[in-house]
Amino acid sequence: MSRIAHLSDLHLLEPAVAARRGTDWVRVHYLSLRRSIDYVARRARAETALRAAREHGFDHLVLTGDLTEDGVLAQYEVLADVLEASGIPAERITLVPGNHDAYGTAMPWEAALAGPLARWEKTSAAGAAAWMDDCVIVPVSSAIPQTFLRSSGRVESLALDGVGAIAAREPGRPVVVAQHHPPYAVMHQWVHGLVNHDEVTGLLHARDNVSLLHGHTHRRKERGLVAGGPLRIFSPWAVADNVAPLRMYDVAEGLLHPLPALAARPDPLAAVCRDVEAMGGVVLRDVGALGRG
Ligand SMILES: [Fe+2]
Ligand SMILES: [Fe+2]
């Protein structure tokens, strides 16, 4: 029985983010609304989440997008550093991009996978798949270039055809799609939603061995396709907003079975904040799970 770990929405910043000027400053401040622009804090959240995944143990880790705040090279370099330092073998990690990884002057995802994220290209590129004993994990990009005033997504039909082909060829094997946007309509769908969510839902209806892990909503949730049916669609709390965002699933009897919520680990920033406040300083805390998708 394989165990899958799931993290999403790291929204990593670059070390020199405070030096931004002009439109680069406007973009990162708009996108970070309700999240403090604190490189150290964002990085610490990601490191803590990866450490928790390692401590709980898993066979494969999926990171479902918004890996960076706005996709600049220095942010991908931070992501590579954090993943490398986690000690998790690259072949056991699948990455997919989110809307935040494709804004403005963002590095194209393919270039990031050919550059700073090259170690994870084999499991994360279009057409890739991570084959495990009893399931297969397929990354599907829903990131599209767009103004940072929108956060919508679209999945290429070709990518869905690839998932469908694997699911048809391996009817007894669970196929786990990793994508950023949820495969259903959301509030303010035109601005925030997956444009062709019905195509993805159609695939899930057509192939009952396909499940889907997503991010973007920054909410822990699970859904079936029909009332009383098995759970097929899962999302976790955002790493950037939550001290215990990790989700885990066991693969059994052709489905994903989510493990109960994992206990919160001590926030490494909490002690620092207490020290700062004890000395009379003021700490601007994150607002919680209210960040932009
Ligand atoms: Fe998102
Ligand atoms: Fe997000």
Could you describe the 3D structure shown?
The structure is a single chain. The chain has 293 residues and is of the alpha/beta class. It has a single domain (3-278), classed as Purple Acid Phosphatase, chain A, domain 2 (4-Layer Sandwich). Helix content is 31%, strand content 16%. The chain is built from 9 helices and 11 strands. It has helices spanning 22-31, 39-56, 73-86, 109-114, 121-124, 157-169, 189-192, 197-206, 268-278, and strands spanning 3-7, 60-64, 93-96, 130-131, 136-139, 175-178, 210-213, 221-224, 231-235, 247-252, 255-258. It has a 6-stranded mixed sheet with strand order 4-5-6-7-9-8, covered by helices on one side. It has a 5-stranded mixed sheet with strand order 3-2-1-10-11. Strand 5 (136-139), helix 6 (157-169) and strand 6 form a beta-alpha-beta unit. Helix 2 packs parallel to helix 3. The longest helix is centred in the first third of the chain and has 18 residues, at 39-56. It is globular and about 55 Å long. The protein starts with a strand and ends in a 15-residue tail after the last helix. Residues 280-291 have low confidence and may be disordered. The chain binds fe (ii) ion (FE2) (2 copies). The site of one fe (ii) ion has 8 residues, from loops.
